[in-house]
Write a structure and sequence with these properties.
CATH topology of one domain: Arc Repressor Mutant, subunit A
Low-confidence stretches: 92-106
Helix content: 40-55%
Strand content: 15-25%
CATH architecture of one domain: Orthogonal Bundle
Length: 250
């Protein structure tokens, strides 16, 4: 395919609407084409800006009244009818609140996962992927001192297939954190570290593997920190790197 053809597919790629085979092909193309990578980065940042703007949206205060009015039974002229009407209205409100809570949690999770994926894609598409370039963990770790409100240890990768590329400061929901970049057999892995918070815990929950676009994502907490991995590498690679990170934190 030509670059023009690929660029027409970038929006569908970022929205996870491409077939899996085309997604893999576009992943490979983005790593080798500066023009398409730049397009992906620009559109990814635009989508992220729209996501952040959506947080400021406040629903119409009349929405609940309209919903209640449309679903409440019209009971009149019947003994105890007002009790039935009040009960139905309360049930509708409870159902609305419960549904809103479920939707809000799913929305927060999808938004956070989307932001992390966008950050990973933007890093891959950038000419300067990291701010501190080093495979030496004793160089990368001190670089973050004073730049993020926590400290962390980096794993010993000697004898493994992994290599540390470096790291940079990044932000998730306006909170500063560390983004570390690793490679394993030509696959890139972004390891994000943030100070854990009730909001992150509610949105991401316990450790689990999910997928967004063609990427695997895994999240866990350790020592008050939230770790998140985004990569197209295999689950076994994620598990091995996670084990090394957890061991380094001990």
């Amino acid at each position: 395919m030509t670059c023009e053809t690929w660029q027409r597919k970038i929006d569908a790629y970022l929205d996870a609407e491409l077939p899996e085979a085309e997604t893999r092909e576009l992943d490979i193309h983005l790593r080798s084409c500066a023009s398409c990578s730049s397009q992906a980065l620009t559109r990814s940042e635009l989508k992220r800006t729209i996501h952040l703007a959506g947080k400021k949206f406040v629903p119409d205060p009349e929405l609940r009244k309209r919903i209640q009015s449309s679903i409440s039974p019209k009971v009149s002229g019947r003994r105890w009818g007002w009790i039935v009407e009040v009960g139905a209205t309360c049930a509708a409100v409870l159902l609305l609140i419960f549904g809103s809570m479920v939707w809000l949690r799913q929305s927060q999770r999808q938004q956070l996962v989307g932001e992390l994926t966008d950050l990973h894609v933007a890093t891959l598409a950038s000419a300067n992927r990291v701010d501190v370039v080093s495979s030496d963990r004793h160089t990368v770790k001190p670089w973050f001192q004073g730049k993020v409100p926590f400290t962390f240890n980096l794993p010993d990768l000697q004898g493994s297939s992994f290599e540390l590329i470096g790291g940079k400061v990044t932000y998730l929901d306006q909170s500063p954190g560390a983004q570390l970049l690793f490679t394993v057999r030509k696959h890139m892995l972004s390891v994000f570290i943030f100070k854990d918070s009730p909001e992150l815990d509610r949105a991401l929950g316990s450790s689990e593997l999910t997928r967004k676009l063609s990427f695997n994502l895994e999240s866990w907490t350790d020592g008050g920190l939230r770790y998140l991995v985004v990569t197209d590498a295999s689950r076994s690679d994620i598990n091995e790197l996670r084990a090394r990170i957890v061991e380094a934190a001990r």
